[in-house]
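Reopening this ticket.

The earlier resolution said the output was attached, but the attachment link was broken on my side. Pasting everything inline this time so it's all in one place.
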Amino acid sequence: MNSKPESADIPDSPRQEPRLPPGQVLTSKWPVLHYGQIPQVDLDHWDFVVDGLVEPAGRWSWREFQALPRVEVRSDIHCVTRWSRYDNRWQGVSLAEIFRRAVPKPEARFAIVHAEQGYTTNLPISELMHDDVLLADKHDGEALAPEHGWPLRLVVPRRYFWKSAKWVRRIELVAADRPGFWEQNGYHNAADPWREERFSDW
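Inline output:
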């Protein structure tokens, strides 16, 4: 009989050392932080789009998105407000899977992530291609709570958690970087927790 715990079969995000980035405090809680109101979502009219410098552009209804090949990944959360939470178990669809269907053009370098209520954040496309980056609809075996981004949120473990946008609806691929909401309001463009890239020096 295999005595390994079930969680041992879930791929781990590559771990940087020290595991806890500088200036962070470990918690078992999951604080709720976001700008604006929790959106009301009607899944019958919901879609997810990938466009811009891709060929072809992609669009999925909720049912179509649920039919895509799924992954499960375990990773840590590091929030710019100085809390970290270890060993979060996410389920969803990898960005690599999405980009196999909506293929980035050679000139595409950056992704502008569009969420409900006009929120955006920006990332290099290379950051989205890591194995632990996904569009998640479940956390620790349960559907995401609305306050944590249901029905769909981006998860980018190597960056501060504001880059893991909640309520994602669209990813636009572009040639030139374009700062998003928090990046235009004083937060660092790169958001590397191990370099404490919390705030912009512009």
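Reporter confirms the inline version is readable. The two ends are 58 Å apart (CA to CA). Confidence is low (pLDDT under 50) at residues 1-8.
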